[in-house]
Amino acid sequence: MNEPLFWQRLRQYRDVERSAFLCERWQLRNSLRSAERLYDFIRMEASQALADDFAASLAHNPMQVRLTPYVLALIDWQNAASDPLRRQFIPLASEYVPDHPALALDSLSEHRDSPVPGVVHRYPGKALLLATRSCPVYCRFCTRSYLVGGDTAAVTKAHEVATPNRWQQALTYIRDTPAIEDVVVSGGDAYNLPARHLWPLLEALLNIKHVRRVRVASKALAVLPCALLDECGWSSALIAAQQLAREQRKQFSLQTHFNHAREITWITRLAADALFDRGIRVRNQTVLLRGVNDEPQGLGALLEALVAINVEPYYVYLHDLVPGSETLRTPLSTAIRLEEALRGRTSGYEFPRFVVDLPGGGGKRHVCSFRHYDPGLGVSLFRAPAIDPERRYYHFDPLPAQASHPAALSRLIEAFDNAHPQALAR
Ligand SMILES: *Cc1c(COP(=O)(O)O)cnc(C)c1O
Ligand code: SF4
Questions:
Q1: Per the confidence metrics, is the pTM higher than 0.90?
Q2: DSSP secondary structure letters along 200-251
Q3: CA of 18 to the centre of ligand 1 (A)
Q4: What residue ranges do the domains of the chain occupy?
């Protein structure tokens, strides 16, 4: 088997043996957890100029720094400025684009749909249980940047998750709401709940009669795959839940988050095989990111690589409005073009749904299901009758680069409504 020791390309990991690099504790102990540590790391692997570029980005970055050696080793440090892995985890001031005027923290209005702390209940039959605020790795573009991780210079976080001592309230709500058949245990990243917390939570959920499907959302397979190689560690909670779900004839699965084919290594394959061998189904959610996966070739390679390790491409999301991340957003037309280019290459059930999570809490809609789209204005109009039959939901493309002053939001909507009166009819 070809198992290159790819991390040894880095100056700082030149002497790290395979046994250490595949050790979860080593990965966690050697994770970078501050901007200062990352600054020094960049200086050593790339250049002083790039380190300064990163330091200058901190005023706008909504996410704390936390990176595993595994992720750091995936970055091509010789070409870090343009590297798609670097772009996802390390912001640079030189690529900063001002936030869109439609941006609101918690742009999906999850707060409004939260009946008790830590539960987001928007769709009748399913709910999110936000069970932790932290992750093993922080993505700079996190959709839940309003609550995930510690405060930064740019963002002070809400504290609304159901931490272990508050789970009872969340579980009681789910128990008392028979319509909820499907629960996603998310956060943050469910990896940051140790097995001794995660397992009792999954067990309690599976033991609720009307809960038929339980999913765990974690990026561990992508950013810390060695965590899944030890069946006595965090994985033990997943294995036990899968076993209980099967006995109950219910569904249990893992949801993960890969954005680029280079995130899939031989270590990922070992980890995915371990899950497959235990009968744990894994689905992937990709976020479309400009300069990372917004070309058919790159996105196609990712989808192929996922299918090859038995991970089902489930969703490709348009990037939500997130502070400091405008540089990564793509217009709706990009998603439509990618779906057109890629559909039909493989089994239909291995092809993802391309969706937009509508600002204002309209939920996920297929990118082609707009009532009207004006690519010139960069505004599209959607309806979401299952959520609110009366309401209009607007989606906003990134503003064109030449717009020196961000257009006022109300004027953008007014221009759209005036130009397309027929689109407003119900
Ligand atoms: C995405 C999401 C879910 C899960 O939705 P699926 O489309 O079934 O994967 C549940 N609740 C909320 C609020 C969500 O955003
Ligand atoms: S792993 Fe998920 S929740 Fe955590 S920072 Fe990344 S996108 Fe956000």
A1: yes
A2: HHHHHHHTSTT--EEEEE--HHHH-GGGGS-TTTTHHHHHHHHHHHHHTT-E
A3: 38
A4: 6-89
